[in-house]
Queue: 3 jobs
Job 1
Amino acid sequence: MELLSGGEMIARFLKDEGVEYIYGYPGGAALHIYDALHRQSDVKHILVRHEQAATHMADGYARATGKPGVVLVTSGPGATNTVTGIATAFMDSIPMVVICGQVMSYLIGEDAFQETDMVGVSRPIVKHSFSVKHPSEIPLILKKAFHIANSGRPGPVVVDVPKDMTMPNEKFEYNFPESVSLRSYTPPTKGHSGQIKKAVDLLLAAKRPMIYAGGGVIMGGASEQLTKLAKELGYPVTNTLMGLGGYSATDDQSVGMLGMHGSYEANQAMHHSDLILAIGARFDDRVTNDPDKFCPSAKIIHVDIDPASISKTIRADVPIVGPVIQVLEEMMGLIDDAPTRTNQDAIAGWWKQINEWRQVHGGRYDTSSEKIKPQAAVEACWRATNGDAYVASDVGQHQMFTAQYYKFSKPYRWINSGGLGTMGFGLPAAMGVKMNFPEETVVCVTGEGSIQMNIQELSTCLQYGIPVKILCLNNGSLGMVRQWQDMNYEGRHSNSYMDSLPEFKTLMDAYRHKYVEIRTKDELDAKMEEAFAMTDQLVFINCYVDPEEHVYPMQVPRGSMRDMFLSKTERT
Amino acid sequence: MRHIISVLMENEPGALSRVVGLFSQRNFNIETLNVAPTDDPTLSRLTLTTFGSDQVVEQITKQLNKLIDVVKLVDLTEGQHIEREMMLVKVRASGAQRAEVKRTVDIFRGNIVDMTPSIYTIQVVGESDKLDGFLHALSGMHILEVVRTGVSGIARGEKTLSL
């Protein structure tokens, strides 16, 4: 029997759970835990410069590995600073455990120093939360937290730990719980076979099918199964923003991303399809456009582990609740054994039509301009990294250009805040990835707006030697805001222009990082290669791009999937 | 349409706030709500009534089921059920009015549970419509205070909501 204090139990549990890195920031209520961490060496703590960044680092790690990221902060401001990061993870179903210090339990409710009701504050943005009432509960509570965060539809879990639960001289028996079961939480392990059979019958009979795959394919580890199914059927695949890389964008059957800034062919094909197989996707408003005009002739098969995602915005004809990997495997088995095959003539005609749509826009942009187009910068980055980097993104035009032009061929490589759209996400997320994949190229694509929202983390990169590459598409304005102002507010650029940017070179000097500047088109590839060649340095690539550029295609508001602007002067 | 949703949940601190919070967070409405521990002290039973289309109520039940503290739930209005609500009404009644109030209470099978020379406190139990009807019947009187428990309900016959 081993006796440990509450603080020691936390450190020990994390080790026993197989956690290598945690990200956080100390403070009064968490000091006993920090002292316990100091007296061991199995779990490494990364000291960030702002708690929000700790959550994004843990989040980046989780998105790249599929395992829960762990955050440790103190009470009050330490805890509230994690709120944006928790909400980011919640919206994108990312597994995360956030351990927050809390004031002494006997002071709770008395407005004590650095007291915040963190369980209350975080309630709408967590999958679940716990408050520790006795030190001996800590191992089981943490086990439950990891189990909930990482099973079913993943999500963030907050564990609130009052300081007196971690007193160094109060020791209790510690046993690592190997497993845990909760009577009120049993995530589905298998889709309904009758429904899967029905889905396969529809799939084999379809004339204009579409496979619409979301982030659930990636977090569900089902990329291989999806690819196998799509290949077997020969049907077109479109990925959501969250699902990029779940099916290779360089494959012939990929029609690219769908939705607001989706490809012309993906949105047209969705609109005209007669059967949609939605897998691990949630018919987000940035995908469907006006739900009343959504894909009028399509029957919908919806596979998701979360029953609440099914028929929430778009009614499913064949709902299937289950893990995507299991459902896809069962579908494959049924297709292999089916007496009928796909309708070859109809599918050939469907591909002919899709290939015609591919010619209409085809991701074109103005390549004759003197200025560097942001699309060209992303393509140059793709070439310089052989299309094989982990790419974390901030939020805005650069995010959409990266989603469109960096052709992801593998899952877990595209790390972006899709649901919440959190500016400031990119740099810390990239850091979380890089620390766990030190041999891989990790780039943060950002803008001069987003990067300043967590730029303090350049200091963390210095402390731990985290050589991420930062590609800043610098257009001197909040590009996406400016685009909407151009389109909807007669070009009145209210507060979307920043006229006092720092000298990024001086800033990088201050943090002892490298700086590369790209001002002309002809130096794009060479400078990009120069930057990526400095593998053991953090390099800030300041790439001056055309501020007038807009992201296209762009769906027309309140239209159907196929209603799109194709450039500043063309629309469907 | 009106639905009565009955929820069996962990009798844990914070469980109720998660349920109530869900309704405001997801823009669902709650008409009535009542909650108390069950014969099993680890479980609470919460009953709420809400109005919404089938699609909205489907989302409500799915989102409630997603809460970790929710063990089981049932939409009682999907089957035959018994629903009850209790109301306490304090009425100023003197002179000839006292007899009229007493008659009304008898018609609605209520009870006078407290009285002073000028005040009756009345208890009425029944479906919500009956309670509304009683208040309507008293509309000529000087009502001082009304308190209602909200609906609680149970399925008829063999069906149970239990572990």
Job 2
Amino acid sequence: MSEPIVLKDHHDESRVFIDRVVMAFACALLLTLLLAGRMLYLQVIQHDRYATISESNRIQVQSIPPVRGLIVDRHGELLADNAPSFSLNLVTEQISSLDETLDRVENRIGLTTEQRSRFERRLRRKQRPYESIPLLHRLSQEDIARISVDQYAMPGVHIEASLVRHYPLSDLVTHAVGSVRRINEDDARVLGKVAYSGTDHVGKTGIERYYESRLLGRVGYQRVETDARGRIMQVLSRTDPVPGENLELTLDAGLQRVASEALGEQRGAIVALDTRTGGILAMVSKPGYDPNPFVTGIDHASYALLRDSIDVPLFNRAIQGQYEPGSTLKPFIGLAGLMMGVTTAEHVIDDPGSFQLPDSERLYRDWNWTREGEGGHGKVDMNRAIYRSCNVYFYGLAVELGIDRIHTHLDLFGFGRNLAHDLPEAGSGLLPSREWKRSVRNLPWYPGDSVNIGIGQGDVLVTPLQLATAVAILANRGRMVTPHLLRDAELSLRPNVDIPDDAWRVISDAMQDVIHRGRRGLGENGTAWAYIGMDIPYRAAGKSGTAQVVGIAQGEEYDDAELDERLRKHAWFVAYAPAEEPQIAVAVLVENGGGGSEVAAPVARKVLDYQMIGNSAIAQRSEHQEPTFARAGAYLD
Amino acid sequence: MTDYVRQLPPHQFGQRKRVSEWVRVDLLSLFLISLIATYGLVILMSAVDQNMARVQAQVIRIVVAFSVMVVMAQIPPRLFLRLAPALYLLGLLLLFLVLLVGTESKGATRWLRIGPIGFQPSELMKLALPMVLAWYFHDRRLPPRPRHVGIATLIIAVPVLMIYPQPDLGTSILVAASGLLVLFLAGISWRYIFSLMGLLLVSAPGLWFVMTDYQRGRILTLIDPERDPLGSGWNIIQSMTAIGSGGLFGKGLFNGTQSQLDFLPESRTDFIIAVLAEELGLIGVLALLSLYICLIGRGVVIAVQAQDTFGRLLAASITFTFFVYVFVNIGMVSALLPVVGVPLPLVSYGGTSMLTLFAGFGILMSIHTHRRIAL
């Protein structure tokens, strides 16, 4: 033996081992007695109780779905409610041949293969015996009659009434409220099985999705005694479901209607904010779509039509559409110049119609530049630069500010961020910076980049919601707003922007001049005066803008007329009113609309009018006053 | 090892050659296993709605497992002793591979798949762990010294911690039990046993915070099944109803309403005892429990008669691990324990754990039939 001898006391060891084995065996016997005792308890002592439950009566636990909370606007108008709908359900335990039953249903009221396969997929998610699985939704009265007549021959086929989400305003508020959809396999994997037992729908977009847990409510259940065929004989106990919470939004359906009509058939978006609270008063994205068919399952063809439409109606332009802000950015750049001491209100430049960087050939033109060199605004100060929307002034100012200061300043107003409280789907736009350009393009920041930012072009992108928010903050003299849709939303506090009074006064006056400055045939007009300023009965402030088309899909085949139309610039107009005690801020975007003052400003005016003077006044004003000042030119910016 | 005993061909002692001398099996445990398996098949036939294809599949599994058991019984324990460390290390390697490239099924990653063959390394560990511990203590003085207890604990902890996150609570409990049983049987001092129990008691509230919501739900369900009657409470309500409504004599084979009307979930796998309890009543359950106890008793006799430390510890660990299966399964179905996925041994439908169980009995037989006779 090579190993060291281990002194093992074999006798002692086996004694210890036998002790332990006997102990373990004794334990096992005791535990077995415990099991036997438990069985004795269940099978003999509790036998009667369980026998009643099991033997003659089959007890079922059925879930009772809660009623989904309603969504109303700030005046209580219904935006989403629940309407009764009849569905055809199958209980497979009561059906001997599923295929035969499905064929019978097909013969009576028709059944597509799509509906069949959807049913089969749903069947796989079945959780409990005797669960009633929906086959067809939204039965017509005729369908119900046809099935009812033969129901005795089709055991296991039931017509059930349930409450289904309904959007009474159809496509008017779709993009603001969102909608629910039928729960599909992917949803079922992540949703709580119990919380959604008996519930077929889940909020898929917008408010319906964000506040899903509050709208859903809590599932109830009842124990029922059923006979052998699953028919309920008696309800033994019932825990009532807790209905979902009703939500009141900040939206004003009336304003939403006016805004939507003002935009008419044009593609575009409108966001109106209550500047005092940040509540969203109107959020329009056109074209919209009717969410109701989605609730019970839209058919493939209709869905494809919406999905593939070149107008992308499913896309929420108001919060997801990202556009160049164009000249609507100028007041913010001007304010930056004043606040950072780069320029003063009195500082005057000479605008020859174009701008050049030192050591550069490139000509940055003003919008009234002509080849003959007659253009230009001549002497321009901050006030005139804004109400005439002078590019050259802001080219120079932007270069002097430099991108770092521009970035710091615009960031305060929410550019490049999603400030919204309950709109996680909202885009954050793009606020370029040195670091951004370095990491994305791997290029240094050139002064020429700043030149373009000065007039809201180049890389900067905003959503209509962002622009409306920034305007609201400006209107508030720097008091922060957090845009939101739920009226009693708990908002997190964000720091205000510290705007000195005199700087604010300069910008505010200039923006009022955009609308109010002008007299028929005399003096110099603000850019929007001819279109909305001549008869406006209250003080408002605004700024127009045009954005170059950046989002056009390349390589798609449109006919020429269509292509031209879609290459036209987007029209912007932002405004707030009343000028001194602001209540409402609005941003209007008209896709491919052309000039901001000409196309977008009248839309913004209608939104402001509704808020300032009410609906009746608008009706009187419409039609008989077409703006006649053609002199203002097609390219007024 | 001191060769103070010599193995003699058994026929030198008897006049006639018996079957057990040609084929080394233990006839008594063979008989008990066959009885339980047959009883199990009858219950299964009811649980699968007399679907003969399913019954046939189970019969084939049992036949295969039986053959594995007989083959294992022919291998001399000496070989198991020599292979124990290698088997254990192989088991660890395979468990590690599962963590890397395991196949996912029903939300758990337990399988290694090579072409058409699937393999669950945790099953190998159920046997390799007690084997390596028995090997470890074989040459050491017992009761073990603190250092050896420490190393043995490490040997147990590594595979258990690898199986637990697969996730497979049931198997990790069984593997841990098989290892801890060896420690207990090796005679570790009561100090360790009581301090382990104390530690468990003290850390029980802490464990609550470590557990996943899912596991917490199962414990809350045990306390009050009515808490969540549609979700996790459903199984337990239905199985208690099945058991309780069976009464003393049951509703008769194939006549259980709970199981036949699909109220009872998992009725052919983990919850099959509820089918038995409903259809054959308390009498049927007690019959099965008695058969189990007889088989365990036979295992105890084999362990006591084993002639070296390795054989003793391994035989006893296999025997009592078998009991852990029985206790945990029946305990969870009758709502004494929270639901963990442990099948009813020799009865539940399914092949993986059955193969391990039969292989274990094969080792038990091998230990018994290869005894050396003292000169």
Job 3
Amino acid sequence: MSTSSDTRGTHGTQGTGGTQGAHGTQGGQGTRLSLHAADLGRPDAVALTDVELDVAPGEILTVVGPSGCGKSTLLRTLAGLLPPLDGRLAQDGRPLVGPSADRALVFQEDALLPWRTLRANVELPLAIRGLPRAERRTQAEAWLAGVGLAEYARQLPHRVSGGQRQRAQLARALAGRPRAVLMDEPFGALDAQTRAGMQDLLVEVLAGTGATVVFVTHDVDEALFLGDRVALLGAGRLTAVRAVPHPRDRAAHDAPALAALRHEVLASLAS
Amino acid sequence: MTADRAPTGPGSRPARRRNRPRPAARYALRALALLAVLALWQALTSLDVDLWLRFSQFPTVTDVAHAFADRVSGPDYWTDLADSLTRIVTGFLLAAVLGVAVGVLIARSRLAEDLLGPVLEVIRPIPAIALVPVAILLFPSNEQGIVFITFTAAFFPVLVSTRHAVRALTPVWEEAVRTMGGGRWRVLASVVLPGALPGIFGGLSVGIGVSWICVISAEMISGQYGVGYRTWQDYTIVNYPGVFVGMATIGVLGWLTSTAVELMGRRLTHWLPRTSDAPAPRPRLPRPTPASSVPAPAPRDGAADRPGTGPKPEEARDEHLV
């Protein structure tokens, strides 16, 4: 992750005063998200029951499970868009009610507002935070540059490729300086090469933000590459949470411990 | 940033209008179409054709042109024009503002839907022009009555299309803004209104047309001055060229106003993907055959199954030639 310091450096020098400087160095300002004995879903369609989950500040938790197992429901609950049907949902020990800028959500695709240019999309969370226009513009451009889209800042979303849209979405989510980033299969619609590049980019831009990440995916390799821990969903339950050996290390792909975990995860998905 | 992560994807600035005829040629074609109709009219009337349809009593194009020249040089024509335009612009703007407001309200609030929905659904089928008696009873002057009828005519198309457009919005847009900390007004201003705009303009286009029908009819029934009133006057005194001048005027005014609505709509919804603009709406199509480790994009779980935005509000953007 040698490039990560460059990226953060770019933002650090954009000069947003105290908040940004503190942000870069402090790290660990991620939030703790916890679910206790929680039932999730809609009243007429309960997706997950009796969920016990504690996401530590600053960690990357990946969530895998077959489609339809409630991955998105879990994420929307953590975002505050969907109140739990039963049990407790807390952020840093306090009850979590409703969405907030603290917890940004990144969607699979097409969540950029199509009438806004990429830059205007990234400016949106900054505008909501009440930053003055010039400041918004500078920061948005810095974030777009950070994800390699500097020259596309004035393009409309439908004018750029799917991978570029997802990078813009990532920039938009991080621009609001959330303490947690909730990602719903963000690279699910991308082809293999683009996806690997996006994973590296994600690791790069997350470094130094200190944000807690919950990353939902159906791709086991992706889950084991990105996650500090991996949570397994199946049959309406959270079946296991496992620590991942060698997180974010491509070279460790064939390490025995990782191979064993991959085997276990695949077996649990198949059952 | 490493270079290999530089923008992938197909060219982001496709050559525009590659296979389209030049605009000048298209305008020439349109002018030609109008001239052809005028020529046919002139031929049928000057030759007094009587083949079941009887053109012998019909004024010729030249008769109408003379009458038109007379009218244009007189003062009445322009006051009539100004009167009709004032009525339609007032009524239509009121309908646009209230139609969008009520449409959004009904689409977003169950209470508003329950309270206003039934009332509006009962009033909606009544043709606006049938409200003339109501207008006469309600309003102190004819003028306000006519504006009321024009307003009612445009209100419902705007209301209904706004309601549909707001309901058809992709939920992830709102969810995204809410997880950025945006509140109700932010969602309204940044997602609902801009996102519904293509649909709203569909309603406005219909509305301006219906408004003309109703303003002219109302003027014929109860008006004093105005293009409709004048046309009816000419009919009662059997001045047929005058009637045709009135019709031509209505036609041109209607065309101009709906063109204005259309152009404004296009300007405000310029962000819509155009089919003629190549890579949209799905620019990432030429995907390299993925390795076996990449399954097809999984269907989203549960309630989160929502349509992509793709060529979403396309149906609202009918390609009017203006």
